Amino acid sequence: MRDTSGAFTSGERTLAQATAGPLGLGLTSSGSYTVRGVRRPIHLLALVGLAAIVAGCGSGSAFSPALPQRVQRAIVKTFPLLAYVPTELPAGYHYSEYFSSSQDDFGLSFTRPGGTPDDLGFRVRNAHCPGGALHTFRVSGVRIRWGGTYEDQEAWRCFTRDHVPVIVSASRSIFGDDSLNTPKRFHDALELARLVANVEHIR
After folding, report:
1. What is the pLDDT of residues 92-150, one digit of tens each?
2. How many domains, in total, are found in the chain?
3. Is residue 3 part of a domain?
4. Pairwise CA distance, residues 44 & 87, whole Å
5. Cα 96 from Cα 10, distance rounded (Å)
6. How far apart, in whole angstroms, are the C-alpha atoms of residue 97 and residue 117?
7. Residue 66's closest CA among 86, 48, 38, 91?
8. Closest Cα partner for 176 from 196, 147, 143?
9. pLDDT in tens, 152-170
10. What pairing do the DSSP bridges indicate for beta strands 119-126 and 164-172?
């Protein structure tokens, strides 16, 4: 997983091809998926800056509608280089908390009142890309790694900004073993992948 080039193997397929299988999933031997030109099963909060979301993300925007402006100002002030925030969230989720444990990372939490699961985490940190991906998605041209256990899921992307390694990740306490062999499991994984793919650097 130390390759940050975004290159894909021959196992890559479009979502249209992937959904042609018996389960509507079409897991490839390499565990790779390409998602483009399809309607998103996710609640869009904004389209601003998505055209600029590439391996290094966009050039920057004023604010994201996914977070209160006061929180975004605090992030920009404390973490100007790492100030990446989501531009969209899965349906029903709302901002809950902003926190940081060091000068090299910060986190955000979101909740979905009355929903299960109700905890969604978002984190940005200065670190080198870890290993451990079980599957790989390509969303909006961005390479997303994904891993899951019987208790939770996590999706992340790795890139550099001003020669600094950055990891943007999202996690959720929801069943997510490596099979992704039902539409529900695949949908849950894809929601996290989309969240991580559609981030924007604010200023």
Report:
1. 899 999 999 898 999 999 998 876 666 899 999 999 999 889 999 999 899 999 998 87
2. 1
3. no
4. 8
5. 41
6. 17
7. 86
8. 147
9. 889 999 999 999 999 999 9
10. antiparallel
Asked if residue 181 is part of any domain, the answer here is yes
CA distances from 117 to 112, 114, 136, 165, 173 (A): 8, 9, 23, 31, 6
CB 33 within 8 A of CB 55: no
Amino acid identity, position 117: P
Torsion angle of C-alpha atoms 45, 48, 51, 55, degrees rounded to 10: -70
Whether residue 8 contacts residue 17, with contact meaning beta carbons closer than 8 Å, is answered with no
Distance of CA 74 to the CA centre of its chain: 22
> Rounded to two decimals, what is the model's pTM?
0.72
Residue type, 32: S
Q: How far is CA 81 from the centre of its chain?
A: 18
DSSP secondary structure letters along 124-177: EEE-PPP---SEEEEETTEEEEEEE-SS-EEEEEEEEETTEEEEEEEEESS---
Find the CATH number of the domain harbouring 142. Answer: 3.40.1000
Residues 6+ apart with CB under 8 A from 94: 110, 111, 112, 113
Report the amino acid identity of residue 138: R
